[in-house]
Amino acid sequence: MEKPYTFNLLHLLFLYLLLPFLSNSIPPPAQADHSEIISRFQRYLQVNTSQPSPDYQKSTHFILSQADSLSLQSQLIEFVQGKPIVLLQWPGSDPSLPSILLNSHTDVVPSEYSKWVHPPFGAHIDEQGNIFARGSQDMKCVGMQYLEAIRRLRSSGFCPKRSLYLSFVPDEEIDSRDGAEMLASSYVFKNMNVDIVLDEGLASPNENYRVFYGERAPWWLVIKSNGAPGHGAKLYENSAMENLFKSIESIRRFRASQFDLVKAGLKAEGEVISVNMAVLKAGTPSPTGFVMNLQPSEAEAGFDIRIPPIGDLESLEKQIAEEWAPALRNMTFEFKAKVYCMMTWEGPL
Ligand SMILES: [Zn+2]
C-alpha cells in the first residue's frame, strides 16, 4: 500500500506496547538501546526493495543477520526462484499449542526520486526525529517492531509457551502470488499450526498499537474503449475517448458518493469502497509527442478499487459490466488483480 513517507522514530518505540501483551514485567529500554533500535531500522530501510526490482538478496541477508543475533531458528524458502520468504521461529515451551505468526512484507512501492527531499533509501533523520525512507511505514517498521520486541523479551529471560513465527514475504506490492499466497497454501504453513496472525495494518500516529481484523480487498480494474477514429475537428458519436469519458464520469460520481459518506462521518474509511484512477492511456504518438488533430480509436483507464469485507460484490460487478464498461458502448474490461475477502470473523464489525 502507498503510505506517506516519513516515520517518526518515537513510533518505532511503541513496539514496547506489544510487550505487556506478552509480559508486564519488562522495564522500558535504556537511551543507548533507543539509538541501536533506530540504527537497525535505518539499515533495513536502506535496502532498496522497491518494486519492480527489489533487492531481496540484501533484505534476506539483513533479516537473517537479525535472526542470528536473536538466536532464532531460520528457514529460507523459495517457492519461486528469486522470491525468498524468510521464516523465523522462536520455539515455545509447549509445542502442542497452536502458534502465533507475525507477518510482514519486504518489498516497497516505487518512488519518484526527484520529488523526494531526502533520498528514499537514505533513511535520513531530521532534527524533529522524522525518518525519511520509502517503506518506513509500509511496512518495514512493523517487521522491525516484531524483531525488537523479541530482542527485548529475550533479554528479559521471557520464554513463550506457544511457538512464535515471523514471516518476511516478497511481492506484496504486486499481488503476493509468489509470496504470502504460496506460503499460505503450503505444507510448511500447515505444519506451523498457526492460530493467530498479525499482519499489515496502519502505522500508528501515536503510541497505541492498533489491531484491525479486516482488510479491504484490491480489485485492479482496466477498462478499454473502442471507437471509430476521426478528425480532431469533427463531432461524432461513439468515439473511443467519448465512451471512456462517460465511464470515467460514472466512476467519479461513485467515488464521490463513497467519499461523501466518510466526510460526513457516516462511515469509516475502511467501510466504503474506494476507487482511484491510476492509469490513463490514449493518443496517437507522433515524433514530437502526440497527434493533436486525430481522435484515437482506442483508449483505456485503470483503477485501484478497494472493497471492504462488508462490500456488496455482486452489485459492484453489475455496475462495472453495465455502467463502467458496458459492451453497448464498445467497452471491455479486465482485472489485473481481483482478491476476494474471506470474512471468517463472527463478531460485529
Ligand atoms: Zn504494505
TrEMBL record:
Entry EC number(s): 3.5.1.14
SUPFAM superfamilies reported for this sequence: Bacterial exopeptidase dimerisation domain (SSF55031), Zn-dependent exopeptidases (SSF53187)
Signal peptide (from-to): 1-25
Residue ranges constituting the Peptidase M20 dimerisation domain according to the UniProt record: 214-326
Entry binding sites for Zn(2+) 2: 138, 173
Keyword terms, alphabetized: Cytoplasm, Hydrolase, Metal-binding, Signal, Zinc
GO molecular function, one term: metal ion binding
CC cofactor note: Binds 2 Zn(2+) ions per subunit.
Highest taxon above the source species: Eukaryota
PANTHER family reported for this sequence: AMINOACYLASE-1
Annotated protein name in UniProt: N-acyl-aliphatic-L-amino acid amidohydrolase
Lineage of the species this protein comes from: Eukaryota, Viridiplantae, Streptophyta, Embryophyta, Tracheophyta
